[in-house]
Amino acid sequence: MLLLHLSDVDEASWAAKLGAELAPYPVVRRGDQFAPAEVRYIFVWKAKTDAFDGLTGLQAILSLGAGVDALLKHPKLPDAPIVRFVDQDLSQRMSDYVVAHVTMHHRLYSRFRADQMARRWSQLYPPAASKTTVGIMGMGVLGQDAVTRLKPLGFALRSWSRTPKNIDGVEGFAGQEQFDAFLGGTDILVNLLPLTPETTGILNYETFGKLRRDGLEGGPVIINAARGGHQREADIVKALGNGTLAAASLDVFETEPLPASSPLWELETCYITPHVAAISNESSGVRYFSQVIRDSEAGKPLVNVVDRSRGY
Ligand code: NDP
Ligand code: OXD
């Protein structure tokens, strides 16, 4: 039996589609009558405290999100394998966001927007893409998709990951010991890391101060599409205020929804979107998780299983 436990998304719609796809395999929701011990799979997003109560026969926990940081902090998380969402549609949407914001900052959008507001005609030619280095933190599923889409645009690319990567056309840096060297040549810093104890708060004032200053007019830029826990918002406000950063594109926040009192709202060089960089698409999600369940029931190994010791 599959149990759905999805908050802040249309659980009824997911249940109807999963039910149709998996029939006659039983699919239930929280309000339905069912024996918890018969649940073999739970499909979760923003799991409540009682989400796993009585689920003694769990084979796997299926995460609607690609990021599992919140799930891993669940106080009663059972010891079953966690399968996270990995999907071409999700990757494409994230890359859409990354490409849009990288190209916007490369073309000095903030500068020309301010000029327009001031009715000021002031010519300044943005550098060629090849002279602008985009540094991507996190070279997993999403980071790798982003570089395949940025590469044809001609940017110089570099990546930072936990373990070394050898990707054609991307200068790879790995581990804490190469972090400063990675930052030192980066004009546009894109964050696609998972949120773990090691990466919490990584977008801080010290990090910003290490980015390359003589690449983009006005200074370096950050783009965070991963988790709000990666960023220190007070540091971003300070860095945007004193020119350490020229601009910031933020899709995620320390507290979501971003409180109306946040000073970020008022900063013209801060580009805010409400955690919409990439949504888990229903039709591809239904296909993906149905296949996971069918394969598992047929005795095949689970895919995209979270490594709990790494935290992602
Ligand atoms: P993956 O697990 O595929 O990739 C994670 C990458 O981060 C890997 O390259 C890994 O290194 C690297 N990494 C992990 N820890 C460290 C560390 N301490 N130092 C350096 N590098 C590290 O994740 P995805 O690409 O699928 O997703 C990334 C994140 O994007 C998710 O965790 C989620 O939080 C966020 N996300 C946000 C969305 C949004 O709408 N805003 C939507 C979807 C996801 P290595 O390769 O060596 O293991
Ligand atoms: C995710 C997200 O992790 O939407 O998938 O943030």
Automatic annotation (TrEMBL):
InterPro entries: D-isomer_DH_NAD-bd, NAD(P)-bd_dom_sf. SUPFAM superfamilies: NAD(P)-binding Rossmann-fold domains. CDD domains: GDH_like_2. Pfam families: 2-Hacid_dh_C. Keywords: NAD, Oxidoreductase, Pyruvate. This is Glyoxylate/hydroxypyruvate reductase A. One of its GO terms (molecular function) is oxidoreductase activity. Residues 100-277 form the D-isomer specific 2-hydroxyacid dehydrogenase NAD-binding domain.
